[in-house]
Write a structure and sequence with these properties.
It contains 12 helices and no strands. With 277 residues, it is mainly alpha-helical. The two termini are 26 Å apart. The relative contact order is 0.13.
């Protein structure tokens, strides 16, 4: 005899159109409509011919290339830190765990400009001057761009990796160890593959944050043409001399990159949810 109990995935029966549904969906429509209006305003302000001409400019191409190179280096650093740190924060409890959790999240809530100022001040200290004297120059250099991007975006990768490892049942690792795996093998063959989508989503989010970074770069790395100029600083420099078409072309390129990034993240996280269901 079939059970009459409702499936937990079945929507609750009842009127779909009521005061609460209309009110909440009205907020959805208002917000989404505003975002679409902004995007359409950008698209209709320029045309395809102008976009092609702008994106062929040597200065703009140099900024796009530098953004790609520095953000690529940044994301490698983020992954190198986020995987072991996310796993450690998820699996182990140690003295100062709450403090470490707080410090990891601090760059997320801290105004990015403050981070740029802090880096600039650090390299005026004795330790900072020693680092630069040893050959690792960061202030107003391309390495400084990577350093800024890393400190601003790493928290997103670490936090996402921790959440991904939290979702992996620790019993599976212990089971693997009872079958002969070492701790490292259980991590590598069990925990990491199961947390993979969350780690990748966090890395992509960190990359998007790095590509769009502006304030700290202006303070710490500057915006010298074909040296430390990336896409966000290109937008600022072009607007400052009244070339709104150039700034808008780069902005639309970044908008497209952001849209693709979010689509990939939603696809990965949706896959993880369905896989866990």
């Amino acid at each position: 005899m079939r059970s009459s109990a409702p499936d937990k995935n079945t929507p609750v029966a009842g009127a779909r159109v009521h005061f609460l549904s209309v009110t909440t969906i009205a907020f959805v429509v208002a917000f989404v409509g505003s975002v679409i209006a902004l995007i359409l305003a950008d698209l209709f302000y320029t045309d395809a011919k102008t976009m092609r001409e702008v994106l062929r400019s040597p200065d703009v191409l140099a900024a796009i290339w530098l953004s790609a190179v520095t953000s690529g280096a940044t994301i490698l650093l983020v992954v190198c830190f986020s995987v072991p740190m996310g796993y450690a924060l998820s699996r182990y409890r140690f003295p100062g765990h709450v403090l470490v959790d707080t410090l990891v999240d601090l760059p997320i809530v801290l105004p990015p400009l403050v981070l740029g100022v802090s880096l600039l001040v650090f390299f005026q200290t004795s330790l900072g001057k020693w680092i630069e004297a040893a050959g690792a120059e960061f202030v107003y250099t391309r390495k400084g761009i990577v350093l800024c991007q890393f400190f601003v975006s790493a928290s997103y990768g670490i936090r996402s990796a921790k959440a991904a490892f939290d979702a992996v049942d620790e019993k599976l690792e212990r089971l693997a160890m009872t079958l002969g795996c070492t701790h490292v093998q259980a991590f590598w063959h069990v925990a990491l593959p199961l947390a993979r989508n969350g780690v990748i989503a966090g890395a992509i989010l960190a990359w998007a944050k790095a590509v769009g970074l502006f304030g700290p770069l202006m303070v710490f790395a500057g915006a010298v043409r074909r040296k430390t100029e990336v896409m966000p600083t290109t937008i600022f420099l072009e607007l400052s001399i009244g070339r709104i078409e150039v700034a808008l072309a780069v902005a639309l390129l970044m908008l497209g990159m952001a849209a693709v990034t979010l689509a990939v993240i939603h696809w990965l996280t949706a896959g993880r949810r369905w896989g866990a269901a």
